[in-house]
Every structure is written in C-alpha cells, then in structure tokens.
C-alpha cells in the first residue's frame, strides 16, 4: 500500500492520540493535500518545523499500529464480514418465506453496522 | 462498574501503550492482585513510586479510552453479536434442510470469531 494512503488510514484510527497541532498539520497535509509551504503559511510555522512534525507523526502512527493493530484487525474483520454476507445471500436464495427473508435482511444490516 | 475491574479491562485494550515498567507494575497490582508493599519489594522500587505509577497509569488508561473508545465499542459490538446470534437461532428453528442448518452454524462461528 502506498505510504501516503496508509498514513491517511492510520490517521482515521489514531489521530485522537495526537496533539491538536499535530492533528491539524497532518490533516492539512494528508487529507487536504496542501504543500509544506502552504501549511507553513497557514499555521505560521517554519517549513522545517512542519516537515519535522509530519515525520514525527508518521512514526507515532506506525508505532500505535504496531502496538494496537486496529487497522490490521479492521482488514480481517472486513473480510470476515464479506464472508458472512455471502453466506447470508446463499440462505436468501434458498428460501421464499417472508419472515425468513426479513430476518436475513435484518441480520445483514446488523452485520454491516457492526464489526 | 467497579473501578478495579474497569482498569483491569482497560489494560486488555491499552497496555501495549504503556512502558514495560508501567505494564509490569499494573499487571502485578490488577491481575496478580499483589499489594503495594509486595510490588515494591519485587521491583526494588519505593512504595510511594509504585503508588504514583499506578495512579498515573489509571489516568493514562482512562485518557486512551476517552480518545479511542475501544472498550465502549466492544460492549456495543458484543450486544450486537448477541442480537445476530438470536436471529440466526430463530432461522435455525425455521428450517430442517441440512445445507441451511450447516450454513447457519458456519455463520455463527464466523460471528463469534469476529466482531
């Protein structure tokens, strides 16, 4: 996976563990796609300091993932969810009872909402 | 929930974010149920320092939960899982086709393994 995409995903999981300033700069760089120069101007911080903060935050996010593995677990969970949905679809094809079809539909919603 | 139980559960989610020393002391206190005096002796650290570390770690664990809410999410997920299992059990009662029963059993295993 491209490093930029990976860091952007790790931000979804761990950004709350960063300081407000770190979070703002990382969002401007990875989500708003601004350049170091632009972020430097907006935040009134030197270009070098912005670069250092981004580098440090990349390392922090990687460390959090090494320790908590929330992204890795979410990939497994997503795959498992797809397998369950496939099996529920097989069951749907095998029945024409309205109450069973309704229940299967409800279970699909529960599974998509959860996990 | 009793504070001691809550901290012990938060340790399951966030202990990897503590230092080795913090983790060891918290495990001795909350999981092995040793006294401050016993931990002080084992770790060759003053009783007051052990007390301070435990107090600081309790605060750290609460802060991590405030930010990431892994414990809160796991409670919701567990409830949702129970609801799904109940619905699958209703479907089981409604069929006697072997292939459907097998699929339902498989889905239950997938759900228990995941989420």
Description:
The structure is a homodimer of 115-residue chains. Helices cover 82% and strands 0% of the residues of chain A. The longest helix of chain A is centred in the last third of the chain and has 24 residues. The model of chain A has no long low-confidence stretch (mean pLDDT 92). Chain A starts with a helix and ends with a helix. With 115 residues, chain A is mostly helical. In chain A, helix 2 packs across helix 4. Chain A has two domains: 66 residues, Winged helix-like DNA-binding domain superfamily/Winged helix DNA-binding domain (Arc Repressor Mutant, subunit A, Orthogonal Bundle); 41 residues. Chain A contains six helices and no strands.
Q: What key attributes describe this structure?
A:
mainly alpha; homodimer; DNA-binding (chains A, B); 115 residues; Arc Repressor Mutant, subunit A; 2 domains; 0% strand
Q: Got a strand count of chain A?
A: 0
Q: How many separate structural domains of chain A? A: 2
Q: Helical residue percent of chain A?
A: over 70%
CATH topology of the largest domain in chain A: Arc Repressor Mutant, subunit A
Order of H and E elements of chain A: HHHHHH
What oligomeric arrangement do these chains adopt? homodimer
* Gross morphology of chain A: elongated
Number of helices of chain A: 6
How big is the Rg of chain A? 21 Å
Q: Supply the CATH class of the largest domain in chain A.
A: Mainly Alpha
Question: Structural class given helices, strands, pairing of chain A?
Answer: mainly alpha
Please tell me the CATH architecture of the largest domain in chain A by its name. Answer: Orthogonal Bundle
Portion of residues in beta strands of chain A equals under 5%
Terminal Cα span of chain A: 23 Å
Average pLDDT metric of chain A:
92
User: Could you state the CATH homologous superfamily of the largest domain in chain A?
Assistant: Winged helix-like DNA-binding domain superfamily/Winged helix DNA-binding domain
Question: Residue ranges of chain A: pLDDT <50 for 5 or more in a row?
Answer: none
Main sheet record of chain A: none
């Amino acid at each position: 996976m491209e490093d930029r995409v990976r860091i952007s995903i790790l931000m979804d999981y761990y950004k709350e563990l960063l300081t407000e300033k770190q979070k703002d700069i990382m969002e401007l760089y990875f989500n708003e796609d601004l350049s170091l120069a632009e972020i430097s101007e907006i935040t009134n911080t030197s270009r070098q300091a912005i670069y250092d903060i981004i580098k440090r935050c990349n390392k922090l996010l990687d460390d959090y993932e090494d320790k908590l593995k929330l992204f890795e677990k979410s990939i497994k969970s997503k795959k498992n969810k797809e397998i369950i949905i496939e099996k529920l679809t097989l069951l749907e094809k095998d029945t024409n009872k309205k109450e069973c079809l309704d229940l299967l539909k409800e279970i699909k919603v529960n599974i998509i909402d959860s996990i």
